[in-house]
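# step 3/5: fold
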Amino acid sequence: MPSQALAPVAIEGRSMAILYGSETGNAEEIAVELGKMAQRLHFQTTVDEMDGFKLADVLRYSLVVFVTSTTGQGDMPKNTRKFWKNLRREKLNNTNCLRSLSFTIFGLGDSAYSKFNWAARKLRARLLQLGASEFFRAGEGDERHDNGIDSIYLPWSKEFKEYIMINYPLPESVAPIPDDTQLPSKYPIRLLADMDINTPNNIAASDGPLTDDDQRWLATRTKSAARSHVDTPTPPEEQDDIWERTQKQSVDVLDHDNVLKDHPEKYLLKQQSAKKPRLPPSDMLPIPDSYEGFLIRNERVTPTDHWQDVRHLVLDVDLPHKLWDQASRAVGNLTVTIFPKNYPDDVDELIRLMDWQDVADRPLRIPYRPRNLVTKECPTLRDLLLHNLDITAIPKRNFIRELSFYASDEREKERLRELTLPGNEQEFYDYTCRPRRTILELLGDFRSVKIPWGAVLDLFPLIRGREFSVCNGGTSFETASEPNRIRLELLVALVEYKTIIRKPRQGLCSRYLKHLPTGTRLRVLLKAGSAISLVPNKESAKRPVIAIATGTGIAPIRAIIQERDSYPSPGDTLLFFGCRNRMADFHFEKEWEVKPNLRVFPAFSRDNIEPDPASTQSIAASSKTTIITNGTLPTLQLDAHKNYVQHLIRKHADLVGHFMRQRPIICVCGSAGNMPKAVRAALIDAMIISGVVSNCDEGDKMLRNHEMVTYWEETW
């Protein structure tokens, strides 16, 4: 068991706030790690999302660290936008109001996007503009590096710590808290009736009178005991291999280069068993600002033998009719957030591994809650595991480091600590990210780890809602059965694959949606993105549209097309749609056939259709300043022998040029990667070929000119 936790010493004038902006949790994870580093250096530390702070709050801290990702088209994450809006107020200009603020910033980005780390860059620029001083250099992580963000973050954080220790030294009588000493719990939980039941893992027993919650527990404890689960050991044949926990070498040393050594058939997902898993409970959490929805349809739209399971979901959502207009104006940017749950079998396994059977179904008191934790009234530990804690996430460095405090086997303790040591980034990646190993699997590997049930909120990440683009608009909103219900449709590609260790994987939300029966009630959030409104009025609906989409990126495009069709005399639309096969994933093909003002050019990359060789020649990719002379120019051949949307854009350059002369709206949706850059280059090529512009610089300027073109990009 862990030794006594050691709290930081309170030192006058030594405080640090670490404020994060995060969409997927990566920036928050780094903020938490930096916060623990600061605590070990005896800073009075606060870690919070930016929207949890006012501008005046940041001035109360000696040092402030900002950690933010970038979302959308260079946008700030959603949990920073209130803070960012306050920071951008015009009346703050030329006031030098942040002159007492000392800050640094670390950004998380993906260099595949044109506005790489844009959020961190513009936040830094605004802070400096308002008089703040930068006490340590900014860092910019890039997902495209070999080890992802860690390639930049780990050296940056090491340098940051060294800088703090030199420039903000501790008094001689105070030493940093060692890494092998545990910090105090931030979010302890306890049983409501712990004074009546002698529980070894109990935290902070109460000596006061019975509360209403305690009395409720006493009145129902017999029923609760009946719901408790018996400890049933897993048969040997069902146990996972656990040899990795005692090995000093990487667990994937045989597949070090991530090259499949066997026949590819070994890595294909086999047909699922006819036996369906026990479904999560249907209870709905009281999520703030959410709406109640009903699942009307959950239909697979790709063949059962296709590699990807794509679902067409239809939800009827209780939404006051007065808010429908806002939903219509947000078409293209409108998203539905669904909150997945863990499956009971996984929760049972974790309870068994951790020996939590005696407390799993007893009501808990949670005096301090992590931000965004929403629970049932008087939740049990089982409730938290089913509804709130992501037990199948890939374990982060912080999680593994904390686990080492709860390992009773010294070899396992040492192995866990080794995985998180500087210099072992590749080994950490090989064990966690590369095989997509889950927290539950890790705990199965390290059997001596026994996490106290009272510490679960400190260790496990919270389940985050998953956002999906709404794929309908216009009059289709009105097909719900009740006047105050809006019908929303989603096109969702389920995440299912096999990893290098040959284990099938499913995303948490994908698994949840795969078996979700019609009629299920859900609490969902409706959000409008920060991008421009694409169909705000009938004048906009008359403008021509050039739409380029790949895969499920067709979802917001379909919504835009339907919304435009709800206006009289909508403009023409060109749709370049890329997918693998005509017979497998040509989504909404039948719908496109009956729309008179829509022309669709599909690109099937796996149907053995050889592209026109001329369409693989890129002018824009070869030179930004090349000008056509005598009808010839140097070109660069790209993606030969594959049929992609960029080839069709060049092939139909004259038609694209015709649209470009009419102040079009251009929509690009789909996977990030190389697609957005290749599409932009192809559009410039088409403009040059059709004579709209004479060189690449002119084409690039035209795409950036909001008076001539509305260019909207939604990639992920």
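# step 4/5: annotate
The CA atoms of residues 474 and 563 lie 4 Å apart.
# step 5/5: archive (pending)
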